[in-house]
UniProtKB/TrEMBL annotation:
Domain of life where this protein originates: Bacteria
Species name: Pantoea rwandensis
Name of this protein: Altronate oxidoreductase
Gene Ontology cellular component list: cytosol
Domain Mannitol dehydrogenase N-terminal intervals: 17-261
Biological processes per GO annotation: D-galacturonate catabolic process; mannitol catabolic process
Keywords: NAD, Oxidoreductase
Length: 482
């Protein structure tokens, strides 16, 4: 079977206008996929040059397929119907490995038509490396490399105002654009570059804060069968879900030049990204955190299986609609639509998401994802929300680490592992009551940000749920909750 390439599979070509730090699956099924659609339908002429940010020599690169690859987007659409769509992506032109091609890397800065920078270098990528020097070929960190390019562009074009860049990081950290800009300015100071360069960066390059969301699973297990249907070999075939969201905070230039607003409502330009971050954390991540211990103690092993169970699905839906959404600041219809989308994503038959794989650090996840909503819900209604307190109790039951003759691994901070290793045996040996166990967990103000035993009625509410779970089992306890 012929491997994918531009000679045997000719088609549209686009000008080099986008630098992309990161060759991974996510950007190829997210940014490059969006740009390919916009190239086809809105003639933005945005070709991508990928920069591999790490010093890793690879024999096989995107260049082996002339930048071509296929996306396989499948899942449930808004009507709940299964869809599966392939797209041959032509927006990606080539890949550069800067540690082996430093001159080619710097040449990107001298290309007059180059305008956009996208990145996904993982959460650890936006960081400062003290040892980096301007003369390095290249700097070790992503912000260092970006500063080298910006400096080369500034000097080559003599500080021309129209040669700044629109820089769009997609790393999953808060205020990622602000953080990247501050690191570039720190490198400028560290390398003792002239203040007029810093002013050019501030005045003529825009750094956008973003929130990105799409599950991308990479090369599919049925990749060979898909290749047979396509009629070519594609080693960079990448599968992702139907749903995606791209929230961008920053000036209008990006929307105007790339026409990303044509992808609305999936792409949103907003004045403040914070409510969308809160929406994602509370609804998407929070639903996961609430579901995992409940479903696992049901005897279920994956998210999809959990959503096939009417009791679990109803619990998740009611928790979101009745207890989480009322605590959030976006319009109600928008929040409910997001909750609909989340539950469709959970039901995606093409993705098997094991519950134990998302149970990592459950105590921290509960603190960041659900505790704010639990406390706000109580403030709003004067009552402790039954499903959120049930989720808390289920988490404590999960951290028992065993049920009957079944045992499972716990993965969390050493403190919590040690705590539960002492608390549950003490309960079993009648050395403490169930409410004392709950109080011992709630009392940790260092973890929760306050001593939660000082919240009247909270320990009792959680203890009652936990008692029901232990005595009657998870299924009966959940059905009683309804």
């Amino acid at each position: 079977m012929q491997r994918l390439n531009r000679h045997d599979f000719p088609g549209a070509r686009y000008s080099d206008r986008v630098i992309q730090f990161g060759e991974g699956n996510f950007l190829r099924a997210f940014i490059d996929w969006q740009l390919d659609w916009l190239n086809q339908h809105h003639d933005i002429d945005a070709g991508v040059v990928v920069v591999r940010p790490r010093n890793r020599v690879v024999e096989d690169s995107l260049n082996q397929q002339d930048g071509l690859y296929t996306t396989l987007i499948r899942g449930l659409n808004a009507a709940g119907e299964q869809v599966s769509e392939t797209r041959l992506i032509r927006s990606l032109n080539r890949e550069i490995q800067p540690y082996q091609q430093f001159d080619d890397f710097l040449a990107l800065a001298r290309a007059p038509q180059m305008r956009f920078v996208f990145s996904n270098t993982t959460e650890a990528g936006i960081a400062f490396a003290e040892q980096d020097r301007l003369e390095d070929a290249p700097a070790s960190s992503f912000p260092g490399k970006l500063t080298q390019l910006l400096w080369a562009r500034f000097t080559h074009f003599a500080g021309a105002a129209d040669k700044g860049w629109l820089i769009v990081p997609c790393e999953l950290i808060d205020h990622n654009g602000d953080a990247l800009r501050e690191l570039v300015l720190r490198y400028i100071k560290h390398w003792q570059l002239p203040p007029e360069f810093a002013r050019w960066v501030l005045d003529h390059s825009a750094f956008y804060n973003t929130l990105v969301d799409r599950i991308v699973t990479g090369y599919p297990v049925d990749g060979e069968a898909i290749a047979a249907q396509l009629g070519y070999e594609d080693r960079y075939l990448v599968a992702g879900e139907v749903y995606y969201q791209f929230v961008i905070q920053g000036p209008e230039a990006l929307a105007q030049e790339l026409k990303l607003d044509q992808l609305a409502p999936e792409v949103k330009f907003v004045d403040d990204i914070s409510p969308y971050k809160a929406q994602k954390v509370a609804i998407l991540n929070g639903a996961h955190t609430a579901m995992v211990p409940v479903a696992f103690l049901f005897g279920v092993e994956s998210v999809g299986e959990a959503m096939d169970d009417a009791a679990i699905a109803g619990y998740v839906d009611a928790l979101l609609r009745d207890e989480v959404i009322p605590t959030l600041d976006l319009p109600s219809d928008e929040l409910h639509a997001f909750a609909d989308a989340v539950q469709r994503r959970f039901r995606n038959p093409f993705i098997r998401h094991a519950l134990l794989s998302i149970a990592l650090n459950g105590m921290t996840k509960f603190r960041t994802r659900l505790l704010p909503q639990l406390l706000l819900a109580q403030q709003q209604t004067g009552q402790w929300p039954p499903r959120l307190t049930f989720a808390f109790a289920a988490l404590l039951a999960f951290y028992r680490g065993e049920q009957g003759d079944k045992q499972w691994p716990l993965q969390d901070d050493e403190y919590w592992l040690q705590q539960f290793a002492e608390l549950w045996p003490a309960l079993n040996q009648n050395k403490m009551t169930l409410e004392q166990l709950v109080q011992a967990v709630l009392r940790n103000s260092h973890h929760w940000g306050e001593d939660l035993t000082q919240r009247p009625g909270l320990a009792s509410a959680i203890s009652q749920h936990l008692q029901n779970i232990i005595v009657h089992g998870m299924r009966t306890a959940l059905l009683q909750l309804r």
